[in-house]
């Protein structure tokens, strides 16, 4: 407490000295009032710092809003061609912007999220930069995420789907696997079409063959382009939740099949064209995974069994947590037994042996009566 008091005393301005009658500096007089700027140096410094922070916030906000519109502009025509309704850009903050689209076959809705560096917030900017310097795996790059929801609810899924399948840039793979629960379903696979900068996740090799070798989908073709591979952070097809459920398995009406496309914010026209190519690939995948009979029946059964096992594990873990937090109430018989054990623990060794012998004889008599019946 004394340290806190000393710290507060150190930043508290000194008590103003009484005004001197003899003063030849700048001052402003009005009737009985006198204002001498030289007496308010500390206040002027604080006001300048606050004003500078506010000015940086306004300039950073204006800067980011212009960058957001320019960054999302190349993809609006593609969305308008594919969806019947595309809402104008909405901003949650100067660094987070969203476009919503709906009205397309095989896609319920699309959410496009742009995350920029917080130029409007000096403190957050310093924190983000320091975190990137301390943690080599931290990803502070500006990102555009396209989230396509293909189906939702117990009757919202078409076809068997492709389980969880993903192509992830190795630079951010460790962090992404920690953050996303659905990436615990597939295993790492290898394919010649996947560049060395990326990793392939799949629940079965047959699913990979279908996705990479089906004509007019374009995953392998776009990955072959160096610029397109460079901007791609992650392409994920999933029917599992991104976050681990904490209250047991999801109910059927809460489940969704989605495609996540995460790319670096383009810095050139070639990269913007590459992102547009990835958007088209994601929409092609939406049409592909909703086809009935896409995968072999035995592969589809394996996907179903995997999800049943995961649901059982989640239900068991949740039940165990509930029992630990709210242990079941003891029955009358269990309370009597506990009370008897507590009373017997107070007895001496000789008395405990005598009580044990009496219990043994009592049990023998009960057993004899049951056998006579």
Can you put this structure into words, describing what you see?
The chain has about 375 residues and is α+β, with helices and mostly antiparallel strands. The chain folds into two domains: about 45-140, no CATH class; about 140-325, no CATH class. Helices cover about 45% and strands about 20% of the residues. It is built from twelve helices and twelve strands. The strands form two sheets. Strands 3, 4, 5, 6, 7, 8, 9, 10, 11 and 12 form a ten-stranded antiparallel β-sheet that branches. Strands 1-2 form a two-stranded antiparallel sheet.
Number of self-contained structural domains: 2
Mean pLDDT: 85
Can you give the helix content as a percent range? 40-55%
Task: Estimate what percentage of residues fall within beta strands.
Answer: 15-25%
Q: Sketch the topology as an H/E string, one letter per element.
A: HEEHHEEEEHEEHEEHHHEEHHHH
Determine the number of helices (DSSP H or I, runs of at least 4 residues).
12
Low-confidence stretches: none
The gyration radius over C-alpha positions equals: 34 Å
Global outline: flat
Strand tally is 12
Structural class: alpha+beta
How far apart the termini lie comes to 78 Å
Outline the biggest β-sheet.
10 strands, antiparallel
